[in-house]
Amino acid sequence: MAHMRESLRAAQTGPSSLGPGPFLSKGLLLLPEALLDRIFQISPQVRYAAVLDGDQVSLRARDGFEHPPGESSESFAERLTNPALLTLATQRGAIDCGGARYLLVRYGHFFQFLRSTPSGHVSVSLEAGADVVGLAGRLDALIEKHG
Fold first, then answer.
1. Stretch 73-97: mean pLDDT
2. Most buried residue among 13, 81, 115, 144 by CB atoms closer than 10 A?
3. Domains: count for the chain
């Protein structure tokens, strides 16, 4: 049990957390809106994207895609659900998996890509028929490069 507590403590504080990178509130390489622009340029199969930077959420949806039942629902997911999922994956990855880089979730109508950053996370909704593994790699590289 002590070994598991140490592993979980390392997951919360150590270098094996999700998404090491330069995404810092005081020194963004790209402001959240510019990062959202780049995310939407990756593919027309990006439906929605959000950047949580500290306590600020920047959200955007592609024209023609329906939103969940309101911006408050999306903000709730970015402030509570997605950080919880990332925390769980990070802690599990730190135990004996070599860490965790990003998370893909398959919901009923779409996939969700999630990657932690030092000041929050990036969340991207992808069409169900998209090449999600390929797009996840491109999103991961974009976040790593531009944060």
1. 90
2. 115
3. 1
